[in-house]
């Protein structure tokens, strides 16, 4: 198969002028358009990557194309290529020409509709934005989308209340607290100073007392109780118990009538017994010790009789008792003459 060469528009025009003027075409130019390629030759062209362009169509009369037809074909871009001249072959028979398959024409491109500026802007606005979108645009797009699924709402538990110490204090709270602290501090200082002054005063008094001797305010060891006639026989005088701690008794002891002074202290643990006139005995309220009228113990835990004080008749005739001396019966001291007054 002869090689084909694509002819330019200038070459086509030159060939057309020569054909119209009746001049013979040069040997290197084609004298007539080559016939349509047979179906066997079209098959290998179709296998190429680029589709094969159809051969230039002939005029209705079967002759060469006129200049007007060639210009129209060049403008439309249907086919401007002419085959190189090959060896001259006899013209095909009309019957054979009918059997050849007609060349396929490329489908005409659909005419584009005219569009104004408003429609172009509207289409640009409707079209999605190229490139990444922001979070706000994505959220708006999801809200506008009818198929967008509603996100589950997250329930946030309420915040716990702040304790009192964590709450914000008012503007004057700090000043008041500082004032209260200052008042408390002043109170502690006043208390401390007053306590220090009191301790100093006590130490001063103790020092003054140390400088002077101690004086005991006790009743005198010797005192007078009256004349012997004021103490009848068989009687116990208790009126000196509170002031002097002594009983004056007039009774018989060992077959002799005597006046003596008994010490009002129990010989068990030092309690003060009481004289029971109806029972005619001394009774200790602490542990139940009992003593007769003469002072001899007879019941209770008391281990020995009551003690006696020294007694005598003074120069003026009154009975004088001396508490500086005591006499105990278990030691035989009741036999001494200074321990009783014989009646």
From TrEMBL:
Its cofactor is [2Fe-2S] cluster. PANTHER family: CYTOCHROME B-C1 COMPLEX SUBUNIT RIESKE, MITOCHONDRIAL. Signal peptide: none annotated. Residues 254-320 form the Rieske domain. PROSITE patterns: RIESKE (PS51296). Pfam families: Rieske (PF00355). GO terms for molecular function: 2 iron, 2 sulfur cluster binding; metal ion binding. InterPro entries: Rieske_2Fe-2S (IPR017941), Rieske_2Fe-2S_sf (IPR036922), Rieske_Fe-S_prot (IPR014349), Rieske_Fe-S_prot_C (IPR005805). Residues 1-180 are annotated as: Disordered. Gene3D superfamilies: Rieske [2Fe-2S] iron-sulphur domain (2.102.10.10). This is Cytochrome b6-f complex iron-sulfur subunit. CDD domains: Rieske. Residues 33-49, 118-137 have a biased composition (Low complexity). Keywords: 2Fe-2S, Disulfide bond, Iron, Iron-sulfur, Metal-binding. It comes from the Bacteria. One of its GO terms (cellular component) is membrane. The gene is petC_2.
């Amino acid at each position: 198969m002869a090689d084909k060469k694509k002819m330019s528009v200038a070459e086509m025009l030159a060939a057309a002028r020569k054909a119209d003027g009746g001049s013979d075409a040069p040997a290197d130019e084609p004298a007539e358009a080559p016939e349509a390629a047979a179906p066997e030759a079209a098959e290998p062209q179709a296998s190429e990557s680029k589709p094969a362009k159809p051969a230039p169509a002939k005029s209705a009369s079967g002759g060469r194309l006129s200049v007007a037809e060639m210009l129209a074909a060049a403008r439309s871009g249907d086919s401007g290529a002419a085959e190189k001249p090959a060896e001259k072959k006899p013209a095909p028979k009309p019957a054979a020409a009918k059997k050849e398959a007609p060349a396929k024409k490329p489908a005409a491109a659909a005419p584009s509709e005219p569009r104004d500026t408003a429609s172009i802007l509207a289409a640009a606005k409707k079209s999605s934005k190229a490139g990444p979108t922001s979070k706000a645009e994505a959220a708006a797009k999801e809200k506008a989308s009818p198929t967008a699924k509603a996100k589950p709402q997250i329930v946030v538990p309420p915040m716990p209340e702040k304790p009192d110490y964590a709450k914000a204090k008012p503007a004057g709270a700090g000043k008041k607290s500082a004032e209260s602290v200052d008042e408390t501090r002043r109170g502690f200082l006043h208390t401390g100073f007053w306590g220090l002054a009191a301790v100093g005063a006590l130490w001063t008094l103790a020092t003054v007392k140390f400088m002077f001797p101690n004086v005991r305010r006790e009743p005198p060891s010797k005192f007078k109780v009256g004349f012997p006639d004021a103490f009848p026989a068989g009687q116990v005088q208790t009126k000196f118990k509170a002031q002097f701690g002594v009983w004056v008794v007039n009774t018989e002891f060992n077959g002799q009538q005597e006046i003596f002074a008994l010490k009002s202290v129990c010989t068990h643990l030092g309690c003060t017994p009481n004289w029971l006139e109806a029972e005619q005995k001394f009774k200790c309220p602490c542990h139940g010790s009992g003593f007769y009228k003469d002072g001899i113990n007879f019941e209770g835990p008391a281990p020995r009789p009551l003690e006696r004080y020294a007694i005598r008749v003074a120069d003026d005739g009154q009975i004088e008792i001396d508490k500086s001396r005591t006499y105990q019966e278990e030691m035989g001291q009741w036999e001494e003459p200074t321990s009783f007054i014989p009646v």
